[in-house]
What does this fold into?
Amino acid sequence: MKKSNFLIVPAVLSVFVTLAASQSRTHFPTPPEPMNQEQTAKAPTTSTRRIDLEQVQREADDLARTAQTIPSDVASVRKGMLPKDVIEKLKQIEKLSKHLRGELNP
It folds into this structure.
């Protein structure tokens, strides 16, 4: 081989490597808008959500009734007796309060 071929081969290889590296940074095109505009209009919005006020009131009443029993249960714990359902009552209170908060928070 000639001496000039030894210089051309690395030059050609560096050009190919540079081209390959530049092609890997291409960006994907953005998808087109939907042809049917009704598809985007049917998306549910949180402002149109209906709250069942009767159900919310029943849950609030149940929460209040359950919460009223906790002080006597805690008094029993202070006396050394753990009522068997106090943990379940506390879980129910937590569940009802989270649900009410989710219903009333827009």
Observations:
- Helices lie at 3-23, 38-41, 53-68, 70-78, 86-104.
- Residues 55 and 74 are 29 Å apart (CA to CA).
- The chain has a mean pLDDT of 80.
- Residues 52-106 form one domain.
